[in-house]
Every structure is written in structure tokens, then in C-alpha cells.
Write a structure and sequence with these properties.
two-stranded antiparallel sheet, globular, alpha+beta, about 90 residues, Metal Transport, Frataxin, Chain A
Length: about 90
């Protein structure tokens, strides 16, 4: 698989409904119907790119398989499909 720029990850996730809160790291919380749920990940200020290891960890944090995360970042998965995955897994 390939590395992804942190800027692209952040932009893609915020377009899908993640809300960014900047602390020591950029925290991204998924917002479903204006209710922040337990789906959260973070993006470090110090990394310009995320490699396979960090992307695999991020996928776990937001309840996706690694290939699904790629689709979410590359915008071939829309918000509705992501919400359906979370509902199927009884996350939301």
C-alpha cells in the first residue's frame, strides 16, 4: 500500500463528518447528527505523511479495514457508506 499525506487525510476525514480539535495533536472526532460518538483518531503535527503502520492504526481507531480507510481518504467511499459500516458494526 502507499503513504498518504497528513493534509489529504485531514481534509478527507473532515469532509466525511469528522470534527477537528487541535491540542497537542489534531484530534478528529466523527460527528453523527451533531452527536460526537466514540470514533476518534489523531493526526500528528510532526508527520508530513502516514505510512502503512500509522494508516493501519488509524483504520483500527475509526473501525475500518485498511483498504476501507484508503477508500475513505481517496473519496471513493462517501459519508453515507461510512455511516452504514459503523451502524453495521453497532458503533453508532
Amino acid at each position: 500500500m502507499s503513504a498518504k499525506s497528513t493534509q489529504k487525510i485531514r481534509q478527507s476525514l473532515t469532509k466525511k463528518g469528522f470534527v477537528e480539535i487541535v491540542k497537542h495533536h489534531r484530534m478528529l472526532y466523527f460527528d453523527e447528527d451533531n452527536l460526537t460518538c466514540d470514533v476518534v483518531t489523531r493526526i500528528s503535527h510532526g508527520h508530513k505523511e502516514y505510512g502503512d503502520e500509522l494508516l493501519a492504526e488509524m483504520a483500527k481507531q475509526i473501525h475500518l479495514k485498511r483498504k476501507e480507510l484508503d477508500r475513505l481518504i481517496d473519496c471513493t467511499m462517501d459519508r453515507e457508506e461510512y455511516v452504514q459500516i459503523l451502524k453495521t458494526k453497532k458503533i453508532i
